[in-house]
Each structure stands twice: as structure tokens, then as C-alpha cells.
């Protein structure tokens, strides 16, 4: 049974395979875009085992240009079907993508970004 820290690192490792993106297992002091940050959400006891099922959010950030459509275009590359689809990198081996959402402008560390959330579930 892996710990939250081990799963957060595993998810970061999977995200690191996406070309051109920086992946962080913990919140960085400064975000260099495009970026994916893994954040623990919650855990529930697993059915029929002594383990836990965990949920994590992968927060994706892209630059927010003066023209918002440029930031959207950069972020879109990381959506399903995009050239750098993060959901393809995340899935498999006990990790499943539950949902994607919250697409739009986000503030992080005092800076505005284009961003979205990918919720993943880890099944122990």
C-alpha cells in the first residue's frame, strides 16, 4: 500500500512524460508555465481491502496572454485529444481520470493564469 506522498510523486512522474510541461509534486514557490501541480484532495477506505482510495487534483496552468485566446490555445493542447494530452499520461495502473473542469482564469501565487483541474482517483 503506497502513501499519499508516494502517489503524489508517481503522478508527478507520469506528468513529467508530457512534452514541454513542468510537473510538480508539491506547490512551487514560483510557477513556470506550462505547469501541472499535484494536489491531494481526500482519501476513503478501499472496498474489500485494507488500503485506501485517494483522489488528487492535477492543476494545469498556462500563460495568460494579453489575448486570452492564446492562453486558451496553449492550455487546450493538454486536454484530451490535444497534442500533449495529460489524461493519456495519467491513466492506467491503478490511476483513473475522474473528471476535468474549472477551465478558465485562475490566480496562483499572486499571478493570473489560464488553468484547469484534472481529478484523478488512485485505487489501492
Q: Give the count of helical stretches.
A: 3
What percentage of the residues does DSSP assign to strands (E)? 35-45%
Q: Kindly state the mean pLDDT as a whole number? A: 91
Strand ordering within the main sheet: 1-2-3-5-4
Q: H/E series, N to C? A: HEEEHHEE
Apparent shape: elongated
Helix content: 10-25%
- DSSP strand tally: 5
> What structural class do you assign from the helix and strand content?
alpha+beta
End-to-end gap:
7 Å
Q: Which residues sit in consecutive blocks of at least 5 with pLDDT less than 50?
A: none
Largest beta-sheet characterization: 5 strands, mixed
Mind explaining what this structure looks like?
It is a single chain. The protein is α+β, with helices and mostly antiparallel strands and 124 residues long. The chain is 21% helix and 42% strand. The chain has 3 helices and 5 strands, in the order αβββααββ. It has helices spanning 4-15, 68-76, 86-90; strands spanning 22-24, 35-45, 52-63, 95-108, 111-122. The chain has a 5-stranded mixed beta sheet with strand order 1-2-3-5-4.
